[in-house]
Amino acid sequence: MPEAVLSRAAAEMLDWHGSGMGVMEMSHRGKEFGEIIGQAEADFRQLLAVPSNFRILFMQGGGLGENAIVPLNLSRGGAVDFVVTGSWSTKSLKEAGRYCKARTAATNAEGGHVAIPEAAQWSLSPDAAYVHLCSNETINGIEFQELPDLKALGSDAPLVIDFSSHVASRSVDWSRVGLAFGGAQKNLGPAGLTLVVVREDLLDRALPICPSAFSYKLVAENDSMYNTPPTWGIYMAGLTFQWLLQQKEGELTGVAAMEARNIAKASLLYDFIDASAFYVSKVDPACRSRMNVPFLLADESRNEAFLTGAKAAGLLQLKGHKSVGGMRASIYNAMPLEGVQALVSYMREFERLHA
Ligand code: PMP
């Protein structure tokens, strides 16, 4: 979370804008919360230039919830194509199989999830209800630098993206997207809020077994108030959207400024790793994530010493996910360049002492 957002939330905690109530104490149907959610939606639309034929839904259930909610709403029980590039798309494929004919159109599992299979080689089904991919694989550190143009690949299916771990870190080409979903807890706010951006023509396809609270159509018709929405999460995300809109890098503002900053942060770290024989990145440079940077120590017996020293230097949560091992630096939007500089300095010093 950006510190400015946390400070503002702290200042407004007991009394939001002179209302005599904190946000957690408000009725979600009251005028005050109506202002908060309306502003959050408008700000997100502006931030990511979401076209007017897309609805922005504030939901619950997280990324894993959406792995069921998307097929319940879009698959019609038919075929769905999955582009498997890592842990999260693998989970999406498996969960969707409970509701539809989930097919693997492409996978990088054989090479160990380190590169994106070339789009021209994907075997897309002519009858797919949609094509799913994870645009940033948080654990494997793989990011689509460009979304596929499914039409150019001969498919009329809408593209569904799981953008949980890089939403608002870069712009989105909505002309290539039918639906995007993401848990808020990386770049937008606290855990508990899920953001869904869905093209209007996809709202009316839900299976009869789809739970009402997870029906995109019902949620859209009720302006995300079919049931009580995660009000605190929406408020915090709204403050984050305002913070993002205010960001500047030279001539750039908002998400463009964040993108420039994220490129600078990621390049600093990858360039350092590539120049060193002590540290290793296994991910194809063409699809390295700007948000999640997994790396290994060439000599893994030094892992514990690396982590202990990092913690002492105030560099936290660097242990890699257990499925890939090694280290992972998650350098989300709110991580300043100085944080990455501190990490690189520590890595350089650790190498000097142990190489
Ligand atoms: N998709 C991606 C890309 C993720 O990074 C995560 C969480 N790390 C999930 C899905 C699962 O999200 P949740 O825990 O909110 O269900």
Structure description:
The two termini are 35 Å apart. A hairpin with a 2-residue loop joins strand 10 (248-249) and strand 11. The strands form four sheets. The chain has a seven-stranded mixed beta sheet with strand order 1-9-8-7-4-2-3, with helices on both faces. The mean pLDDT is 97. It is built from nine helices and 14 strands. The protein has 355 residues and is of the alpha/beta class. The site of 4'-deoxy-4'-aminopyridoxal-5'-phosphate has 10 residues, from helix 3.
Which helices and strands appear, and what pairs or packs with what?
Elements: H1 3-12, H2 31-47, E1 54-59, H3 62-74, E2 79-84, H4 87-96, E3 101-107, E4 131-134, E5 136-137, E6 142-143, E7 159-162, E8 179-183, E9 194-199, H5 216-221, H6 231-246, E10 248-249, E11 252-253, H7 254-275, E12 279-280, E13 292-297, H8 303-312, E14 327-330, H9 337-354
Parallel strand pairs: 2-3, 2-4, 4-7, 7-8
Antiparallel strand pairs: 1-9, 5-6, 8-9, 10-11, 12-13, 13-14
Helix pairs in contact: 1-6, 2-6, 3-4, 7-9
Using the CA coordinates, give the radius of gyration. 21 Å
Overall structural class, as computed from helix and strand content, comes to alpha/beta
How would you characterize the largest beta sheet?
A: 7 strands, mixed
Count of beta strands = 14
Notable features of this structure?
14 strands, three-stranded antiparallel sheet, alpha/beta, seven-stranded mixed sheet
